[in-house]
TrEMBL record:
<dbReference type="Pfam" id="PF06103">
    <property type="entry name" value="DUF948"/>
</dbReference>
<dbReference type="InterPro" id="IPR009293">
    <property type="entry name" value="UPF0478"/>
</dbReference>
<keyword id="KW-0812">Transmembrane</keyword>
<feature type="transmembrane region" description="Helical">
    <location>
        <begin position="6"/>
        <end position="23"/>
    </location>
</feature>
<protein>
    <submittedName>
        <fullName>DUF948 domain-containing protein</fullName>
    </submittedName>
</protein>
<keyword id="KW-1133">Transmembrane helix</keyword>
<keyword id="KW-0472">Membrane</keyword>
Amino acid sequence: MIWIGIGLIIIGVAFIGLVVFLIKPLNKLASVLNSLQKTTDKLPKTVDDVTSQTTEAIGTGIDTLHQVNSQVKHLNPIFQIVGDAGHAANQLSSKMVDAVEDMKQNTQQANDFATRKNLEGLYGALTLGFFLFQKARK
């Protein structure tokens, strides 16, 4: 029985030493938990502030988008007119290209004819005469 009493006293002294040893870290843990409590108490207000600012920013973005859409609606006819003008210019240039190709082909046929009949000199002389006639007329 004496040995049981001595064992219990040793266990009791060890337990008291352990409690004394753990008092400082437990107090620090308590202060950390208190600081965490203060931070988390402020969190709902911070989230509300951020949410309200985000809502305002989204509202401003939506207003800006509506303004841009209305301005684009006003510009849409202008873009259509510019597109139609570009289409007309494209058709005109296409017709001019066709006319130039026809003229080139006709000129090529005349040039081939002149080369086959050995009339280059005659055409050159006629051209020179025409230019001299024009010069004399001025």
